Amino acid sequence: MKRHSQHSETKAVHGAADLEKKNGPLSTPIYQTSTFEVTDNDEQVRVRNTDHHYTRYGNPTNTVAEKTITELEGMDAALTFASGMGAVTTTIMALLKSGDHVVAQRDIYGGVNKFLSQWLPKMGIETSFVDTNEYEQHARAIRPNTKLLYLESPTNPTLRVVDFKKVAAIARQHKLLSMIDATFGTPINQHPAEFGIDLVMHSGTKYLAGHSDLICGIVAGRHELIKRIWDTRTTLGNCMDPHASWLLVRGLKTLAVRVARQNENALRVAEFLTDHAKVRSVHYPFLGSHPQYAVARQQMSGGGGMVSFEVEGTGEDARRVSEAMRLFTLATSLGGVESLVSIPVLTSHAMIPAEARAKMGVTEQMIRLSVGIENADDLIADLEQALESVAAPQQVQVG
To answer: What is the pLDDT of residue 18?
Structure first.
């Protein structure tokens, strides 16, 4: 009989559970401890590289979260970190050395852009930034010392979609490691590893946790890569607290149902904005007008909960719209059950120079929405009243 392969919805709930175990706690215990007792010094040596030694090295609660994400991503192993940026910086420092070179998309989170462009040069590592969907540029930027291809899809905040097959092929051809920030996509909507991406990173703060109550990062990949990253994480001390891991495990159980609702709501919001006279452009992967719509439909099961749009006006108009919203809370971050709104030039991309933002297509008129699980009609009504704060487009006089 063919072995049944579980779906993502089931893995999110039972991914790390021992289904044969009886009479145990249904809820994952919180191992709120810094260290673990051993019976003798020989055992102390044996447990050193396990999750029963010292929480900077590992913790059983953290292990449950890591195993669940491993199952969701379909990879060998995963590691949790104290933040999404901690996951990115620790991974890159684990895998690169002075003299190495990185090729990275231009469209990436502002904090990662800053790390690549301002911090890595201090360590003797250079980065070349390329246009996200210009794959010939990716290939041309590769040097003999290039070691990593860094990606993000869908991108923040422009919602561009990377063709996983093409970038994975480039990485294989040139013997590079490929790493993707898949936070916006979630392991419910996409599985980059199936296309050959080596490392999948998430800011678990966002969709994986889903309730805006913790900070964490995750990286999943092959055993040998995760072991190297674990060694560096242990040295840098960038580990996750077990109580935060417990919150993450709890959030993961509802990941699939939350994302399904957010997919539905975001598409309805995007369609509403597309038809609005005071909206210049709308960015959402599952809109037919999206430049990478065909690729998105091919490699994603849902468009995600993020929508960005540009008002037909000025940066001040965008600010007024964001401040006029009531159900969309004005706050940074994303991926929670409640809808949020932010202005990227003031938040996620504030640290990037204006010239670089312009190359990304991040304008002062752009508003980013993190669509939650509320009723879509209520969210649309909130957007409609907020957009009234934008002056009506000027009518062109003829004759």
So the answer is: 62
3-class SS at 7? Answer: coil
The tens digit of pLDDT for each residue in 173-182 reads: 999 999 999 9
Note if 57 is an active site residue.
no
d(CA 307, CA 368): 6
Look up residue 130 and give its two tokens.
């390329």
Report, in angstroms and rounded to the nearest whole number, the Rg of the chain calculated over CA atoms: 22
pLDDT at 395: 47
**Helix 376-387 and helix 255-274, axial crossing angle in degrees, nearest 10:** 40
Question: Measured between alpha carbons, how far is 284 from 345 in angstroms, rounded to an integer?
Answer: 19
pLDDT tens for 355-375 read 888 888 899 999 999 999 999
Known active-site residue 109: yes
Q: Is the peptide bond before 344 cis (omega within 30 degrees of 0)?
A: no
Catalytic site residue from 147, 206, 319, 320: 206
Nearest alpha carbon to residue 217 among 108, 80, 111, 110: 80
Does the active-site annotation cover 181?
Answer: yes
Q: Write down the catalytic residue from 31, 100, 107, 109.
A: 109
For residue 121, give every residue at least 6 positions away whose Cβ sits within 8 Å of its Cβ, in sequence order, or none: none
Q: CA dist 93 to 86, 120, 218, Å? A: 10, 9, 15
Select which of 51, 100, 163, 181 is catalytic. 181
Q: Tell me the average pLDDT across 261-289.
A: 97
Q: Is the pLDDT of residue 64 over 80?
A: yes
| Cβ-contact 252, 208 below 8 angstroms | yes
DSSP 5: P
pTM for the predicted model, two decimal places: 0.93
- Has 222 been annotated as catalytic? no
Average pLDDT over residues 177-200: 98
**284-320 in b/e burial notation, b at 16+ Cβ within 10 A?**
bbbbeebebbebbeebbebbbbbbbbbbbbeeebbbb
Q: How far is CA 165 from the centre of its chain?
A: 19
Please give the pLDDT value at position 359: 84
